[in-house]
Amino acid sequence: MHFEQFALIVDDYDDAIRFFVDVLGFELVQDSASCTNDGRPKRWVIVRPPGATTGLLLARADGDRQERAVGEQFAGRVGLFLRVDDFQASYDRMRAAGVEFVTEPRQEPYGEVAVFVDIAGNRWDLLGPAPSQQPACCETGRPG
After folding, report:
1. Burial class of residue 5 in the structure, from the number of CB atoms within 10 Å of its CB (0-12 exposed, 13-18 middle, 19+ buried)
2. Residue 4: which pLDDT band, with cuts at 50, 70 and 90?
3. Closest by CA position to 43, among listed 67, 64, 15
4. How far is CA 7 from CA 54, 73, 138, in A?
């Protein structure tokens, strides 16, 4: 069992694609014409990090309620977590591309982290590699 995808409500498909593909380096998996339940045109747009199996369905806001939810899907909390192999290189590349970081990088028990906002205003954690999961006895070289 696994998560196939998550929906992320955005203002505009093309702006969101540019952000996720050109700025974050995600792959555009699908961009197909579709229709709403009542027959209006929409697009089925899926992006995902390279090598990932779970994607983000970029869903353009449809109606007042959804428009109010753009950027507020997690009520101001960090709701998405992007783990990268090289934190500093990813952080530097994203900053150079104009990504807004709302915290400075810091070290946490689960790895290096900095909070950024996506094109819609949702907060993400950029996470560096997870620290080693070795038991404490192995870190000191002493038997457990």
Report:
1. middle
2. very high
3. 15
4. 11, 10, 42
Place of tokens 């050109």: 22
| pLDDT, tens digit, 9 for 90 and up, residues 74-97 | 999 999 999 999 999 999 999 999
- DSSP assignment of the chain equals ----EEEEEES-HHHHHIIIIIIT--EEEEEEEEE-TTS-EEEEEEEE-TT-S-EEEEEE--SHHHHHHTT-TTTTSEEEEEE-S-HHHHHHHHHHTTPEESS--EEETTEEEEEEE-TTS-EEEEE-PPPP---HHHHHT---
Residue type, 137: C
**Complete edge-to-edge strand list for the sheet that includes strand 55-60:** 5-10, 55-60, 41-48, 27-35
91-124 b/e (C-beta count within 10 Å ≥ 16 → b): beebeeeebeeeeeeeeeeebbbbbbebbbebbb
